[in-house]
Amino acid sequence: MQIGMIGLGRMGMNMARRLLRGRHKVVAYNRSPDRTKEVVALGAQGAYSLPELGHILKPPRVLWLMLPAGKPTDQHIDQIRLLLDKGDIVVDGGNSFFKDDLRHARELASRGIHYLDAGVSGGVWGLKIGYCLMVGGERKIFRRLEPLFKTLAPPNGYLYCGETGAGHFVKMIHNGIEYGMMSAYGEGFELLQESPYGRNLDLAKVARLWNQGSVVRSWLLELAESALKKDKNLSSIKGYVEDSGEGRWTLHQAVDLAVSAPVIASSLFQRFRSRKIDSFSDRLLAALRNEFGGHAVVKARKRG
To answer: Crossing angle of helices 166-194/262-274, nearest 10°?
Structure first.
């Protein structure tokens, strides 16, 4: 299946590579041409402008955006909707706010262009393991693009979630839950480290142990083990934890829907607090974000 990929960052590049391995025909565009040249060397066809991308793709065109939410996505959709024709399909695979999906779908529908929102989870490991996909929009368009979803996802790793916005809404809640899980792990490991037994505990081995049949086992614990093996005290990084927006949106929805979400709220506020103090708990959160998503960490000065 032919697909145009717009955005070749950490996620977009590896998704293009996985699609190529699945024998799809990938036409790739990135604002920085070096990234386009990189994926061309792997077998994709390169486009060095949006008009060129639209020209290369055969109707009905399929364009998949992997861009930062907000203005970058808005700007690209504004440009490509003028290049596409009735029956073409746009998929937003970034972390867009679900209400933005409603606006994008309306704008594209006015020109007869279909729109799907796809929440994507998998981080830098998606190339090897596959990406968890949460998709919203027209069911018939979802069915048409299923060969792409099957290639990108592991077995049972994609789901049609409902009408426009449903995919990104489910992904938003997924990320809110992720915030809470990471905070609980951070607090627990700091308690272990500060306890009278902490001096003799190998926290990487504890993380590994808990993944052997324990009720708290998870992929995040595997990543915690990996981070702690590299740096047992996480002393090379600061406990400075960014948030990319989904936790805030999740809490806005909790307020709008009158749903109590104290764990997610606390975990978001913990990230705000992390930017003023430096604790082991926050260093573990920062390390986990780096392990699963390649998110940047703030390097610490050498500790005495």
So the answer is: 70
